[in-house]
Design brief:
It is a single chain. The chain is mainly α. It folds into two domains: about 10-90, no CATH class; about 105-138. The chain is built from seven helices and two strands, in the order αβαβααααα. The protein has helices spanning about 10-20, 45-55, 65-75, 85-90, 95-105, 105-110, 115-135; strands at about 35-40, 60. The protein has a two-stranded parallel sheet. InterPro entries: Transposase_11. Pfam families: DDE_Tnp_1. This is Transposase. GO terms for molecular function: DNA binding; transposase activity.
Length: about 140
């Protein structure tokens, strides 16, 4: 999790967030730092993000914005396939949106009334932990 100012675009922070990911392995060994696939919404499809993912061998399920689709129709280029398999994968993204919804039910998180970023981050961690415990630690 990275805390930024409200005026920072999501697209610019995608690589920084993905570089901070550490997933522990079931057995021995270093934690995984590269996911198999990234599911993101229409706020993330930039050439730089797609090139960064491609260079690391990470598959992406990111729908294109309408302006990008219109731009592709004007110029020939490599189309980005968002067929039936991609749409089926993208349906799992609602879990992330529901998580944001649950977190923003906490008034302090929704309003971001904390003055310091560390306090806001602590509130998100506390809310996330309480939500996790309340839902039965699934």
């Amino acid at each position: 999790m990275l805390i930024t100012g409200g005026n920072v675009n999501d697209t610019t922070m995608m690589t920084a967030v993905l570089e901070d990911i550490r997933v522990p392995r079931a057995g021995k060994g270093r934690p995984r730092t590269r996911p198999d696939r990234v599911l993101a919404d229409k706020g993330y499809p930039s050439k730089a993000n797609r090139a960064w993912l491609r260079s690391r061998g990470i598959a992406a399920t990111i729908p294109e914005r309408d302006d990008q689709i219109a731009h592709r129709r004007k110029r020939p280029g490599r189309p980005i396939d968002f067929g039936d398999q991609q749409q089926a994968r993208y349906k799992g993204r609602n879990v992330v949106e529901r998580c944001f919804n649950r977190l923003k039910q906490w008034r302090g998180i929704a309003m971001r009334s904390d003055k310091l970023a560390r306090n806001y981050r602590a509130a998100i961690c506390l809310a996330g932990t309480l939500i996790w415990v309340k839902t039965g630690a699934r």
